[in-house]
Structure formats: C-alpha cells, structure tokens
Specification:
mainly alpha, 0% strand
C-alpha cells in the first residue's frame, strides 16, 4: 500500500468515526495563546522603540526591519510546513518564539539595552516566528473534519478566539509595563508562547494530503514556487488576498505607528492597551458572526461590508476625540474587520489543495508583511514632521477610498465560487 493510499484510508476512517472535538479545541487554544503573546509584543516593540529614542520614525523603522525576515522566509516556511507536517511545525515554531522572547528579557536584565541590540533581538524573534499562524491555519480543515463542523464555523471560532487573544495581550502588556517595566514583560510573553507550543503539540489528527500530489520529485525551489503558481491560477484567492493587502498597507500604520506615538506623548500606555484591546474584542464578535453572515449574504457582499466599515470607522477616530469615543469607534472598526480573516481562510482552504495549503498561507503572510513595510516607515517620518493630528485624517480617507475602489471592482465576483452550497 502506498503512502498516499494509506493517507486516504486514514482520512476515510476519521470521516466515519465519531465526533472528536479535542484536536480542534487544542488548536484554538494554541491560537488564543499565540495571539496573546504576539499582541503583547505588538504593543511592546514600538513602545520600547519610542521609549529608547523618543521618535515615531524609530517605531516605524523597527517594525519595517522586523518584517523583513517574515517577508523572506514565509514562502520557505510554507514549503517546510507542507513537507514536514502542520502540527509538528506549529509546535516547533512556537517553541522558538518562546526562546527568542526569553532572550530579549534576559539580555535587557544583564546588559545595557540600546536600540541596535533591541532591533537585533526582535528581528531574530520575527525570523523564527513567522510561520506559526501558517501552520495552524493549514490545520483547521483537518481538525474541523474530525469535529464534524463546517469550515465556516471552524474559521469563525478559530479567528474569534485569536482575536480574543489579541484583545487580551495589549491590555495585559499595558498593565505589566507599569508594574514590571517594558523589558521584564517579555518574561510573561515567554510563558504564554511556551503554553501555545504545548497546546499545539497536543493536537492529534490525521493531516489530509491529496491522493495525486504533483509536487512529488520537485526540487526545493520548484516546490516553494508552486505557491505562486496556484495563487495566480485561483482568481478567488488572488482577488481577496490583494484586497486585504491593499487595506493593510494603508491601515496598519495607524495601529503600529500613529496610536503608540499619540499615547506615548500623553504618557498613557493604559489607554493604548484598552483601545487595541476593545478593537480586538469586537473583531472577535465580527469573526464569530462570519458563519451567520455567510448563510445570508454572498462572499463579495461580505467583503464590501467589511472594507467600507473599516474606512468609515476610521474617519471619526482620526479626529482624536475623547478616550471613550475612541473606544466606541474602535469597537465599530473591529466589528467591520472581524469577518475578513475567516473569509480569507475559508476561501483558501476550500479552493487550494491540502498539499499546497501551507505555501499559499505562507504567501498570504508574505504579502501581509511586505505591503505595510514602506507605509509604516513613511508614516513615521510624516508623524515626526507634521504630528499625529495632521497625518491621521489622510490615512483614514485613504482607507475609505481603497475600500470604495475594491467594492466597485467586478473582479471580486470571483469570490462567489468559494461559497459553500
């Protein structure tokens, strides 16, 4: 019996077996913990950069530099995940994230930390951790199959739980910055990342592979390149990925550069943590609503709702109103953003063969990383020269404009081909 035949037999056995929720529960637990650790670092990295230099340009620069490893390695890591296993790599990558986070805390407590050393450490952390979400996303269909739930429901829960982790991380980090100091908070990040590795290790499920794998025998370069080939052969995935990347290029600098600069100048890390937390919390609500929405509106309509909602929510936030109003409009922004991740996951998982899924999710990570790199640096320069209040409205109107362009494009109709019937 060939390995492919054995894989098919194992899949058929799982399909006919009783419902098993354990693998899916462990996977979403790993997602929760990983996103909590990642969002703590998401707040800590620009905060420490501004703390060390006092300049928003530095925050934008350090985010750009830490994005470079992910840009280079994500397609390669996607290939490694496809070749060596989704669960195995999810565990290994989270373990390396824990070790690199520990290195930051230890170095800060034993030596004099400066910007160059900090950049080096966070770049290493970024390099080892860029494939963690890729491995977990590629595992969702396998765990959903044994849990006997639809991809829409699985991705709604999976992304909602991730958003809860992302909501929790900044608020916890903001409190810990005051209580422990910014660098000592990385000890907590280490513990959370280690817990994410353990829960990923506990996922026990057959990893489905296609019966006819045309990648067998390819050299490593050809193997990695198949991610690009199948992406351009799958219009529904290409259109959605391009749309979300366009949105991210303009939007992400507001969270990574503008808001940290604004709240740092006002000496109010708690307000930043609460804002990022409330945005992520309502992203959870939006993600959970994806399954319900997908049964009532088409995927193209859902995309239009989400991207226009993000732009419309940003306009009042760009005026930098009172903290409670920032929280209100941040909640609307999170609600609009929420359906986007499970929508993208579902389209990729439904349209891309299992054997190539890791490489396509790796490409998603690449374009998500590459897009905002230049915009974050330029935003930092603009903020240092003109101030947050002057720059924020331009970005808000740009996001709304990009949303309008995408929503009137005829090409998003291809998304309907990925809908479940």
């Amino acid at each position: 019996m060939t390995q492919i035949t054995k894989n098919a037999a194992a899949k058929n056995a799982e399909d006919s077996s009783k419902k098993r929720m354990g693998p899916f529960v462990y996977l979403v637990a790993s997602q929760l913990l990983s996103f909590a650790a990642g969002s703590m670092s998401f707040l800590l990295t620009p905060w420490i950069a501004i703390e060390l230099t006092g300049q928003a340009t530095t925050a934008g620069l350090i985010i750009t530099l830490t994005s470079i490893p992910g840009l280079i390695l994500s397609p390669v890591i996607g290939s490694i995940i496809d070749k060596y296993g989704r669960r195995r790599m999810a565990f290994a990558i989270e373990g390396m994230i824990a070790l690199s986070s520990l290195a930051i805390a230890v170095m800060a407590s034993t030596t004099v930390m400066n910007l160059a050393v900090f950049i080096t450490l966070v770049v290493i952390r970024s390099a080892v951790g860029s494939g963690s979400p890729v491995a977990r996303k590629a595992l969702v269909p396998d765990t959903a199959r044994v849990a006997k739930i639809s991809l829409e429901r699985a991705n709604s829960i999976y992304e909602a739980v991730g958003a809860i982790g992302f909501a929790t991380g900044p608020a916890v980090a903001a409190i810990l910055i005051t209580a422990l100091g910014s660098f000592n908070t990385f000890y907590v990040v280490t513990a959370v990342a280690l817990a994410a590795a353990v829960t990923a290790f506990l996922v026990r499920v057959h990893e489905h592979k296609e019966e006819h794998d045309d990648d067998i025998g390819r050299n490593p370069l050809q193997f990695a390149a198949q991610g690009f080939v199948i992406l351009f052969k799958t219009p529904s995935v290409l259109v959605l990925m391009a749309s979300i990347t366009l949105l991210a290029v303009i939007y992400l600098p507001t969270e990574v550069v503008l808001l940290p600069k604004f709240y740092n100048e006002n000496g109010n890390p708690q307000a930043l943590g609460y804002l990022l937390g409330i945005m992520a919390l309502f992203t959870t609500v939006g993600s959970l609503g994806f399954e319900w929405l997908s049964t009532r509106v088409s995927f193209p309509t859902l995309l239009r709702f989400a991207i226009l909602g993000v732009g419309l929510s940003m306009l009042p936030m760009a005026l930098l109103p009172a903290d409670w109003l920032m929280l209100v409009f941040g909640a609307f922004l999170g609600l609009a953003w929420g359906p986007l991740p499970p929508l993208l996951n579902t389209v990729i998982q439904r349209k891309i063969p299992a054997n190539k899924r890791g490489r396509v999710f790796g490409l998603e990570m690449t374009v998500w990383t590459a897009g905002p790199m230049i915009s974050m640096t330029l935003t930092g320069i603009a903020v240092d020269n003109y101030g947050v209040a002057a720059v924020y409205p331009y970005l808000a109107w740009a996001v709304l404009g990009a949303g309008i362009l995408v929503s009137v494009s005829k090409s998003i109709r291809d998304l309907a081909t990925a809908e479940y019937n």
